[in-house]
Give the backbone structure.
Amino acid sequence: MIINHPILGPRDSQEFTYLGDASLIDRPDWQADNAADQFHDYLYLRDNPAGEHRELWFHEQGDRSWLVVTRNTVTHEILNVELARDVARARGRSK
Amino acid sequence: MTDAVMNAGRVAFQADGSTGARKGVQVNRLDGGLIKGSKALSFTFDGKSYKGFEGDTLASALLANGVRLMGRSFKYHRPRGVLTSGSEEPNALVELRSGGRQEPNTRATVAELYDGLEANSQNRWPSLQHDFMAINDRFSNFLTAGFYYKTFMWPAAFWEKLYEPIIRKAAGLGSISFEADPDAYDKGFLHCDLLVIGAGPTGLMAALTAGRAGAQVIIADEDFLLGGRLNAETFGIGDLAGSAWVEQAQAELAAMPNVRVMPRTTIIGAFDHGIYGAVERTADHVLAPEAGKPRQILWRIYSKRAMLAAGATERPIAFENNDRPGVMLAGAVRAYANRWAVTPDQTVAVFTNNDDGHRTAADLITKGVKVTAVIDTRADAPKVEGAELFAGAQVIDTKGRLGLEWARVRLANGTTRDVPCGALAVSGGWNPNVHLTCHQRGRPAWREDIAAFVPAGELPQNMSVAGAANGDFSTAAALRAGAEGAVAALSELGIEAKAADLPEAEDAPINVTPFWYVKEGKGRAWLDQQNDVTVKDVKLAHQENFRSVEHLKRYTTLGMATDQGKTSNMGGLAIMAELAGKQIPEVGTTMFRPPYTPVSFGVMAGRSVGEEFRPTRKTPSHKWAEEQGAVFVEVGQWLRAQWFPQAGETHWRQSVDREVLQTRNSVGVCDVTTLGKIDVQGKDAAEFLNKMYANAFAKLPVGKVRYGLMLREDGIAYDDGTAARFAEDHFVVTTTTANAVLVYRNMEFARQCLFPDMDVQLISTTEAWAQFAVAGPNARKLLQKVVDPEFDISNEAFPFMACGEVTVAGGCRARLFRISFSGELAYEIAVPTRYGDAMIRKLMEAGEEFGAVPYGTEALGVMRIEKGHAAGNELNGTTSALNLGMGKMVSKKKDCIGNTLSERPGMNREDALKLVGFKPVNAADPVQAGAHLMNADGEVSAATDQGYITSAAYSPVLGCSIGIGFLKRGDSRKGEVIRAVNPLEGKEIQVEVVSAHFVDPEGERLRG
């Protein structure tokens, strides 16, 4: 596969390591009342869609960016590639 | 009677003497062809010498020499000859070469002839003519579809010891020599605008069109000659002979710097996003690769657009005994005659259901070969000149034990006629080569007019299909499709190309009337000759209710051989459809997967073999350690010194014990560069480390080091190391050797994905610093000789857990940490990696007066077990901070990775495992890592399990074997005597539960 890195352009997927569902960005608040339940769901529950999937890739053999790649798991079409840091900010992870 | 003997009798049938000089003993060599007849090449088959010519394949050369019998079939050991003239060959599989270069299951049809080629037949004993296992053929009634599943059911215990070894011995085709392959294989990367797959008329026209437009073009063909079927036919293109037009096209392409022509290159798979795999056979056509040159290259081709112009494959018709050597595909017979100037025999009959088969008869007759009959299943078959035509007729049986002698024909009027023929050219129509279109999600669709599946559905991204591969079988259609396809593909890339004026070429339809198998006859009619699947097997599968094509395939093994059923699938599907009372499109077709043709493991491995299998990382002191005669051990990719034997030491324990004692008594030095090092900088560095480690770092003063324990988010202990604070905003963190890469990856994840606005930067500096542990009571004295005098490293100025930047050896910058893994007064000193070698020499020289020793990983391990320090065996992915006795370290006052879930009740059980030490009651007993712990009395079982020993070593300080491990409530059981059991080896010893800190439990030495 070819991943169109937002900074470096098209790169072979061999340069990356795969982590999984981008929902791993949404780490719960440790002080929430039901923090244990939230962390349980965060850690153990994943969707496994046949179709569009937002997932985390690490450009380990490159610039060490974590990316959020929107990929169709059926066709392997890559619909969008974002810097995970931008996604994390957009999802309210700024301090 | 052997084939050669039979053929000797046929010399009388040969055409006149005009070809005699060229033929020599090549009894079936004709005039013309694209072989270079000036120089004869010698080769051997089953030890017998033959001659052929440059341009021959092994198959064409054997046929020229009158050899039709080339192999034995997989299951029944039936005598088999060559069926095809290309890579789809199911039968003529041979072992090429010998020794380390021996390659089994090589298709004789694509093995390019060279002087000295050595080939042997396979799957026969004692000889190809007399094969003992041919007895299987007599038991064919038992060896039908599903034979294995039905027969080897019981008793279950027989499977492993009896059935499987027998089946394994009986099955399979070629053998390997078990010698190392002496040749190199390479990997490479290519990029192009347009990849053209196949260099027949379609592909050549496409490459010419795109090349002339200036596009970056790669054109690849598995054959060593470009041209595809143009080399096998007598068609002209424009004013030129087909092969002459090919030469002209090739010359034009070769002159274009933007075009890369790759013969002998098979595109093996279509992968995601326009990536193709290709195997180029750079030296399979010579005796041995040139020095320094690879045998094959595996290319990864990144294409913006690709055109599949892979042509078509002819399919046979199934009839009784249609597998005798001499029964071949009609297009192959024609190719042998036109391209290789070879006829499989001097008398040939043709059996066809389409007009294309008639071309074979016509071409053979032109070449002077006697065509005894053209048998056409169609009642309205076109006329034939120069041979007898049986229209509306079928071949119902053949005869000839090791080679075809005659075919029995059922004529339209119901009578039979025996037609003498040493070869029977069979055509059932042509199947487009759709394989690569299926490698992603393509599902071929049925086209009634050509009675074949054509590419359809979702093709691989940016692939188009043209020519015969798309069902356009005529030469004119192919040229047009190639040119138009190239223009269309390039226009999508914004490159303007012009379709050139197309030369004139034949444009005849194939006129095929589907005919899959002859119903008459009680014997076996073969569909898949490589896996020995017959029409009967397909019927049996249907009868036993295997009705999906995929089930049919797996139950009968139809199409599951190395040829992927290129010549057999279609027949099987058609028969299945007929039995189910369905149309072929309703039944559908099976899919094809990469690789298109078999690929050697060698080229997949490339250079990653032997020592080069993975990178080897050497420590900065490696050269010095080698000079000392160190014994090395692989730790991941690293090579580390395991111990340093000295003269007179005959057992590793002697060396290790000495290294431990000398370190504990005076001073020892160890290269610890392999530990991961991560530089953490930024205003929020301390806050970031608070998130990473279970314990707190925010208040760590500058100039101090702290041990850190890292958890996984599920609360399990993950890694440990130290963090040294060099400035308010600068930490240097260490990780274990094994987790250096993973910890860095996780920290980057946390930095970018979880805490995106923290002001913190990370770099891995593992390889930037050479780091040495200097341990033992004389460690300070030794370092004071190395560290420049302006730096005070006295106990007062530089106490336990201090860190700082210093210079050594008169100005070389260094980092000094007062940390101890051994439990001794110890330091780690780091210098830029390029000074690592100089540093070890300097340290050892300075230590000479103290009797300093280098110590390896074994002594390191012994000393950390003596101190009860956790390492990989204890951080084993199941243990928590609580188990490690570090429960109190997990700060409840802050958030960190893993702290929330580490509080789960299940991980905080009252009877939780605790890390403790074990000493044998009988000092001579060895403590074994992996032994499980049982109470002093009672049964030994999983239910009564009390824990396990994780690490064990002989302690030269204590004079006995010791261990550390996890014991239920271990911290409150000190002094108890329990059992350490090893049921696997029937061992059991009594051990006393003790503190894991065997040596200096109060830690006085390291603070001294």
